[in-house]
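Table S2 (continued). Query chain:
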Amino acid sequence: MRENNPTNSLANNPRNNPGNIQLWYVDSGCSRHMTGEKSNLLSLTATEGRSVAFGNGKFGTIVRIGKIGESLSHSIDYVYLVDGLKHNLLSVSPLCDKDNLVVFSTTRCLVVNMNT
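Corresponding output:
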């Protein structure tokens, strides 16, 4: 069981960003996991000509797709690196698609993998 709030998430890997705290927000309105910070990603795959639409009607260019986590074997796949994005977003739908239970309270979010 892993609690997931902006300062305590699978993505908070100090090896990727020594001395800095990475804030990841669990977003039920976001369709994909995404970040604007390349150093958050464990691995990268190039992509061309893809973009994401934001709620305000603007678009962001996807420059890479990668993984976040503690290691490549313990990670979240298909995280978009979006040019200019200022926040790190974990999408609820892909988390649930991977057999995770996502529960919100007024102060936190709990993500539990149903297979472990």
